[in-house]
Specification:
It is built from seven helices and no strands. It is mainly alpha-helical and 136 residues long. Helix 1 packs across helix 5 and helix 6 runs antiparallel to helix 7. 29% of the residues are buried.
């Protein structure tokens, strides 16, 4: 299986968390058992799902700090899920560069969101990456 499919699965789980406000182990089991994921893919999905839900408030604060004129409640939920996943990867997950995470987020937005959402997602993530790089 590919990392792309694993990332899409993680996105679905993060989206459901945003909508419902809680983790759903049944959905997790259904989504992770429906594909032939490698152990690395399963580890990635678990790390991202658990990490985004554990650090959700902190991730929202980072997103809000980097969106001019947008509170997270005004962001399309699919875009928000993409941003949450990518901000977690950029700020807390080791092994994926910020540029790769942003590129994958743009591709997710092109696939799952509105026509111009990828531009918004890219702009927010570019600001976050610049802030992370400046802090290092």
């Amino acid at each position: 299986m590919s990392r792309k499919t694993a990332r899409e699965t993680a996105l679905k789980l993060v989206y459901e968390f945003i909508i419902s406000g809680r983790k759903n182990e049944l959905t997790y089991k259904n989504l992770t058992s429906s594909e032939d994921f490698s152990s690395d893919d399963l580890s990635y999905i678990a790390d991202v799902y658990n990490g985004t839900t554990d650090k959700y408030d902190e991730i929202l604060a980072i997103i809000e700090k980097n969106t001019e004129g947008y509170r997270t409640g005004r962001i399309y939920k699919v875009d928000l899920a993409i941003l949450v996943l990518s901000v977690f990867e950029i700020c807390f997950y080791k092994g994926i560069s910020g540029a790769v995470s942003a590129n994958e987020a743009v591709e997710l937005a092109k696939t799952f969101s509105a026509e111009k959402s990828y531009s918004f997602v890219n702009g927010v993530l570019a600001k976050i990456i610049a802030g992370v790089n400046a802090a290092q």
